[in-house]
Amino acid sequence: MKKVALLSLITLSVFIAIAFIMNPQTVNASKRSSSVNQGTALPDSIQMMVKRACMDCHATDGNFMAKGKINFSDWDKYDAAKQSKKAAAMCKVLTKGSMPPKKWCTNNPNDVPTQAEKDMVCKWASSLKK
Questions:
Q1: Structural domain tally of the chain?
Q2: Is the pLDDT confidence value at 23 over 50?
């Protein structure tokens, strides 16, 4: 009798797990609610620099680790607070010189952000803070 009850419990658990896997929206309700506070698109001037210097890695089809930090393909899906935080981080890494990586800069010298572009990103990032 105990074996039948245990087997029934395990079977029920497996069915529940499959239901969650097959319908992830029910598990991750926070994604649905984030669209209420959805942010805005990147300004054109920032978008041009991002396409040229960032999206090789920081896009849906880019580097796994890089797009985990910031994914410009999903920028407009971020809420305003997350956009502000990510923009401030962009300013910081550009100013510090840790992004784009030195190897990428060596291989793509014509696409490296200029100081004026870095300043533009920082000014824009500051404008997002409220």
A1: 2
A2: yes
